[in-house]
Each structure stands twice: as C-alpha cells, then as structure tokens.
Amino acid sequence: MKSIKFFLACICMFCGIAHADTKLVVASFYPVDQTAGMDGIVKAFEEQNPGVKIEFQVTPFDQYLPKILSQMAAGDPPDVIGVENTPFPQFVDKNVLLNLNDYLASSSKLKKEDFFQSLLERYTYNETVFGIPYDAQPGTMLFYNPAIYDKMGVSYPDENTTIDEYYDKLKKLTHKDGDKTIYGAAAVTWEQAVYGHGGRLVDDLRNPKMCMLNSPEAKEGLQLAVDMMLVHEAIPSIATIESIGGSTGALFYTGQAASHFNGFWDLVFNQDPYIDNSIKATVYPTKDLSNRTYRTGGTAYAITRNAKNPELAWKFIEMFMGKEGYENAVAASKNKVIYPPAHKPSYDWYMSLEFPFSDMLLVNEQMLPDVIFSPYDLNWPEISSKCINADMDLILRGSKPVSETLDEICECVNKRLN
Questions:
Q1: Which end of the chain has fewer CB within 10 Å, C or N?
Q2: pLDDT confidence of residue 10
Q3: What is the Cα–Cα distance from 227 to 222, expressed in whole angstroms?
Q4: Share in percent of the chain as helix, strand, coil (round to 5)
Q5: DSSP character string of 123-165
Q6: DSSP helix/strand/coil, 86
Q7: Eight-state DSSP code of residue 178
C-alpha cells in the first residue's frame, strides 16, 4: 500500500513539473508564429514540457506597447514579448521588462559572452540585460550584379572601396539599354549617406544631448548622395522609383540596377533573383575605411515583469534564441536561408553549413562590430517623425537644400533633446 502511495505521489510530482494545462503566451509586433522553423520549436517545446501550450499574440506595431501595458495593468500580460530596438527604451522606462541577468548567469544554454556584444548592448540598460537579441543583420550590405559590372568594364567593389570610388563606379555603370536606363545603384538612404562620410545623428547614442546632422561630414555625405540621384542620375530619383511602383529591390532583381544595399534578410524572401543573377556582396563603402559605421535594426525577446510563467518563458527563450531554435529554422527554411543568429555559437554553426549564400554570411559578420542603432532616447521615434523624416524626404527629392535644411532639422531635434 505504501508503495502504491509513493508511486501516486511521484506521478503527482511529475504532473506538477509538467505544468498541466499551462498556457505560455508569446507576443510580438510581427507574425512570429510564421517565423521559419517556429512549428518545430513549438512542437519540441511542448513535447519537453507536457501540459504546456504556446499561444501567439500578434499586434500591429503602433498598438503593441499600449496593448501590453493594458494587459499588465489588468494582471494578464503575455509571458514572452518581442521588442524592436527603436522603442526598446520606452519598454524599459515603462517597467515592462524583467531583469534577465540572473537567468543568463545560471543558464547552461545562453551566456552573455555568447552574443555579439554590439547587439546585446542595445538591450542592456545600467548593466541590466532586458532582452536577448534574435538576429544579427546590418542593414547595408552592398549587393552587386557581376554581369552588369563586367559588361561595363567596371571592377567589382570590395572591402577596400571608398565611398568616392563607389560613386565613380556607379556613374560608369549607368547606361541605356534600349529605352531602359540601367542604373549604377537602385537606391541610397540619407542614413547611410551620413554614416558613410563619418557623420552621426547625435553626439552620444546612449545619452544624446545634441544633433550632429549639421556637421560638415553629414552635409557633405548627403549632398553627394543627392547629386548622385539628381545631377549624375546614377541612382533613380524618388519620383522615378514611385513611378515604377516604389520597389527599389525590383530594379535590382530585374537587372535594371547594378548595385543595391540591403540586409541579409532580403535573401530570405528573394532567393531566386539572387541565385539567377549570381549576385555577390561586400561591405558597404565608407569614406574612411578605418572608421566604418552601418545602420542596423533588429529584435530582442524578453519576459514581462509580471509574467505568470517567467521560468517557462525563459526556457522558451533558451530554445528559441539558442542553437536548437536555429536548427529548427534551418530545417524548415528554403535552401537553409534564415536570419543570421545573434547567438555566436549558432552563428558559427550556421556558417559551417553549405548553402547558396554562405559567402555573404561572412560579409554580414564582418560588418557586425560596426553597427549603430537609433539614439537611446525615449522620445526618438517622435523626434524622427516631427523633425527629421519629412525634411529628409524633401532633401532627397531636391525640394529643399541640404545644408540649410540640416541646420533646421538640428534646431528642431535639439529643442526636443533638451
């Protein structure tokens, strides 16, 4: 009889460990449930944690934080949440996120040193890690079509190409093919025009006090980019892009532009044109090759401060952000192409695989130490909206002068920073 009671007690104990009838809510601002390999991750996690069911909650970006705050106030928050890098300071300020330091310190699967530091630092505040970075993707890899370069007798860009040399190449690459213009490059952004010439948005990303878009470097870089569009016509103007449907990528994929910048993520969704055109990649050129800066974005996953199941939430993050998660993603992907992991052991494992774009993964890694995020300021999304975006669009259209407008932008930004 005692043996039977002991046996039943053991069953009950294991039922407790199994978290019977437990729901783990994973929230994000994009359809994370459709991420490559997520079905496999969910299946494996639920098998390893009997009784647990994962539920996904997807909310549009502009409604995301308000909804989470409302759920927290009602005592019913999601357990795991995706946090995009730009509004991350707001999540910290609103006390949404759980301190992950102890979890990282005790984990056998994820350690601080396992992540690219330039990425982990974005989700760290006052030495407290609040989010685990998911992807490692600088936004400005330079992709190029070797066939067009060969046709025009222009040497390929490489890691030693300066921005001035790159612009010279674009002029030589631009030509007519019947009634079509073949452009040197499909697009340019004001951010990389500024960064490429050594300019900056603000004086200190962590504690911004002054706008730096009115610096000589920023003005020179942006003016040259505008000239490449409107004077030399080696890059299509915004009006031209709008007239063909607004897709700069389409120009590149169809051979109407010799070069294009983008992140590795573009390969995930547009593999066929990259393979069909034997596209190559290198680091995006800068004026000073010893002082490179590349804009980036990215998402981290975190645990809400008052999550109902924080321990289970961490176990899910360990799987999703660790090698097991990326193995599932690769197994479910087309041609093994996934977002490059921010988790370095997984990144190294991914690089060891044979797949069509493994050489581009090396370029992606080469750029990671020099990535730069948006300024760490609670008001930066509003500042960008009210002070920067509209005027930058007018500058690139040639409707406003570069130097004077950048002065006006900084005046607006500084009022809001201070």
A1: N
A2: 42
A3: 9
A4: 50, 15, 35
A5: GEETTEE--EE-B--BS-EEEE-HHHHHHTT-PPP-TT-BHHH
A6: coil
A7: T
CA 344 and chain centroid, separation: 16
- Asked if 279 and 257 touch (Cβ cutoff 8 Å), the reply is no
Report the alpha-carbon distance of residue 266 to residue 261 in Å, rounded: 10
Query: Does an H or E element contain 104, and which?
Result: helix 101-106
Phi (first) and psi of residue 15, to 5 degrees: -60, -40
Rg (the chain; Cα; Å): 24
pLDDT of residue 35: 82
State the Cα–Cα distance between residues 180 and 197, nearest whole angstrom. Answer: 31
238, 246 Cβ separation under 8 angstroms = no
Closest CA relative to residue 308, chosen from 109, 72, 51: 72
Closest CA to 81 of 66, 64, 93: 64
pLDDT of residue 175: 97
For residue 68, give both structure tokens.
Answer: 């989470």
pLDDT at 14: 41
**120/117 Cα distance (integer angstroms):** 5
**CA 341 – CA 357 distance, rounded (Å):** 15
Residue 401's region, left for phi above 0, alpha for psi from -120 to 50, else beta, is beta
| The token pair that represents 194 in the structure block | 């500024």
Total-model pTM:
0.89
Question: In whole angstroms, how far apart are CA 410 and each of 33, 214, 393, 400, 404?
Answer: 40, 6, 15, 15, 10
Q: What is the DSSP string of 191-206?
A: HHHHHTTT--SBS-SS
Which residue numbers in the chain have pLDDT < 70? 1-20
Q: Looking at the DSSP assignment, which residues form a beta bridge with residue 388?
A: none
Q: What pLDDT, on a 0 to 100 scale, did the predictor assign at position 407?
A: 98
Residue in the structure block whose two tokens are 């500042």: 383
H or E element in which residue 410 lies: helix 402-417
Contact 196, 284 (CB under 8 A): yes
Q: Which secondary structure element, helix H or strand E, spans residue 3, and what is its range?
A: helix 2-17
